[in-house]
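User: Please predict the structure of the protein below. I'd like the answer in structure-token form so I can feed it into my own downstream comparison script.

Assistant: Understood. Taking the following sequence of 505 residues as input:
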Amino acid sequence: METYAYLDLKSLEEKNNFYKKLLFQSPDLIFQFTLTKEGAIFFPFLSKSVITHFDLTPEEKNKPAFEILKSKIIPEDFTLFMLTIYQAKKEMKSWEHEFRAILPIRGLRWFKGVATIESEENGDVNFFGKITDVTVYKEQELRLKLSEERYLFALEASSEGIWDLDVSTKKVFYSSQSMKMLGFDAEDTIDYIDKWDDRVHPDDNEKYLKDIQLHIDNKAPYYENAQRVLTKSNEYKWILSRGKIIERDKNNNPLRIIGTHTDISIQKEKEVNLIKTLQIVEEQNSRLLNFAHIVSHNLRSHSGNIEMLLNIIEEEQGGEFISESYTYLRSSSKALSQTIDHLKELVEIQTELIHKKENLNLNEFLAKTLDILADEISKNKVIINNSISENETLTYNPAYLESILLNFTTNAIRYSHPDRTPIISYSISTDNTQKVLNISDNGLGINLEKYGKKLFGMYKTFHKHRDSRGIGLFITKNQIEAMGGSVQVSSEVGVGTTFKIYFNE
């Protein structure tokens, strides 16, 4: 029996030695401290690692542990340190807390303390636990937090959203910026991909799906597509989506795709405006070519006639023939002056950057036109039908409106049908947001299949009329377009013609 007892004591002693080695070899600070019912703290046990944990000097080794902790822990952290201990005692829950300490050799260090709690019959509470140096982890955590903050700041500064698609579940993480683009609350969201796909404009949907499929099939190194997406306020925004597969399964099927959203509505608007500008430039170039053709052809024709007549006058001796040649010379000179005036008027229309606009009463301007042409209207027994309201107004250039009404009305009278009473009708209508002035007649009509493309050309005439010069419609069309409007014509030979003037107010 004595032998067995001796063996048990020896085994127990070996175990104690083993545990002591574990305690003293552990890099963590193992402790027991007691919080008395009166609120006092003392440490019945501290492992030797307290020396390395807190850079203790030989003199500090003999000081009370509580005093050492108070001198090492940063003051504001020490206050919270004590509060958490008293809170753990009050609730009788395990203690866990992180704090900082300033050490003479290692500088600022982060520590984490954890402990279990046991109460004694006398009201004292014992804490059994460890304190671990977690400085490395805290530094990594801080670096990661800083990196994340920089990343988020960069995203916000660039106004780009992030999306992260789980292909198997079809669930997508949408960053707050992506949600903000569509007018939703600016917060990170996880939702099904349909939340976005169902908002893509029908006209863009096919290409949107095709582009992402090309990347999934490895036919494109990345995914990129610009699509119109419906916002919360039921308006469309242009969004540029980019993405790349970052994970595939063993069969090369995509598992995860990450990408960005960029609001390119402003760029698209500029692109549309650029296209419009290019169209304007193209139209101006076309007019310039037309203008150059007119100048080269018509002026050369007039100057050639004048030169020929001067040569004849120089060669001929007969007074009567010379007098007749001077008559032709005067006529050619007058025609040259008229052509120059027409070209000058055209240049003025095209080069005036800002055309004066006023709020004009349309009926007043029509009445003025009819007064100017009163003799022609009376002589040709023209019937005027005016269904325009007395209060109808246009924001327009006064000189241009007068010219437009005068030219179209003059043409309607000039090309009236000889076998019936001329009727000219005026009415106003709307097409979307544009006002449309309709001027109709029952005159000779125009063969639009034959002359439609030449109708508004300079010096183009389509009826044998002594007063036809082919300049009125050309000048009028330029005036209308200079004001941002347009003109359309419908006509039938022997029936009549209708001009529609679209006003861009």
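That's the full token string. The chain is about 45% helix and 25% strand.
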